[in-house]
Amino acid sequence: MKILEYLTPERVKLHLNGKTKKEIIKEVAQLFVKNGVIDSEDLEEFVREINEREKLTPTGMQDGIAIPHARTPLVKKLSLALGISDEGVDFESMDDEPSRLIFMIAAPEETKREHLDLLAEISKLSYEEEVIEKIEKAETVEEIFENLKL
């Protein structure tokens, strides 16, 4: 499984505006509406489900990565969005560092195995310090995609 199978250029946003976890989650979640992964009228409910999931167990990993995610019938197909925060945001990460790379997974109910596989694939990035650094410093979506071709 490759990350790029689930990520499209339209679901990548450089220089996120949000300053809090909730603002960032909403901003990244909006990327799913643009591609029809989530209907616009379901966006608020999807954001609520992501925030509820965050309350159970924060999704801040380490090395500046957070992976907020939800499995819900609101989602039409397993998809990934990526937002990059220049300053980083507190996602209660394992290393207490702010998260700069926000990989959000939107998964339909029936994709449990694929959802977990995608989570694992993104988690492996924390071992690729050079790749993380290049993605954080990327000025274009094309640069991000080049560096995600692992």
Secondary-structure topology with pairs:
Layout: E1 7-13, H1 21-34, H2 43-56, E2 65-66, E3 69-71, E4 79-89, E5 99-107, H3 112-124, H4 129-137, H5 141-148
Parallel strand pairs: 1-4, 2-5, 3-5
Antiparallel strand pairs: 4-5
Main location: cytoplasm
Domain PTS EIIA type-2: 5-150
GO molecular function: protein-N(PI)-phosphohistidine-sugar phosphotransferase activity
Distance between the termini: 11 Å
Fold-level CATH name: Mannitol-specific EII, Chain A
Main beta sheet:
5 strands, mixed
| CATH architectural arrangement | 3-Layer(aba) Sandwich
Order of helices and strands: EHHEEEEHHH
Per DSSP, what share of the residues sits in E-state strands of 2 or more residues?
A: 15-25%
- The count of strands amounts to 5
Number of helices: 5
Radius of gyration: 14 Å
Low-confidence stretches: none
- Give the oligomeric state: single chain
In CATH, the homologous superfamily goes by the name Mannitol-specific EII, Chain A
Keywords: Phosphoprotein, Phosphotransferase system, Sugar transport, Transferase, Transport
GO molecular function, one term: protein-N(PI)-phosphohistidine-sugar phosphotransferase activity
Pfam family, one: PTS_EIIA_2
Domain PTS EIIA type-2: 5-150
